[in-house]
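Narrative summary of target 7.
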Amino acid sequence: MHRTAMLPRSWWDLRVEASVEDLAGQDVAALRAEIDQLRRALAGRPVIDQACGMVKVLAPCRREPARNLLVDMERQCNTGLPDVAAAVVAAWEGEPLPRMMQRTLRHALRRLYAEDRGCDSAPADEPSGRGRP
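Modeled conformation, tokenized:
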């Protein structure tokens, strides 16, 4: 007995092949973009680790609160975490910290000290309430 497979007419249609290639091209582009993003993240990692270490020296704390402090500074200064970390490292080496970052760092350190002492109250020049954005 001899079997014959029936293929749809579009099986050999070049447009179908082109759409498959387009999907593959989109996947490749998406993967390249993801790789670039990961490379940028890895490039900023050493300076973030160094800044975390510096914060741990300024306010004796563990790594997680130190990183959270840097993330808070990032949000409040509306800049990237590697930029905040680089500014903290540069300040440690003698460059002036931008005024906004100085103020943000001061408030973040006060909050960290207050949490360490178990105080629920915020410093006098800082609004109370922890639910701020």
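The chain is about 70% helix and 0% strand.
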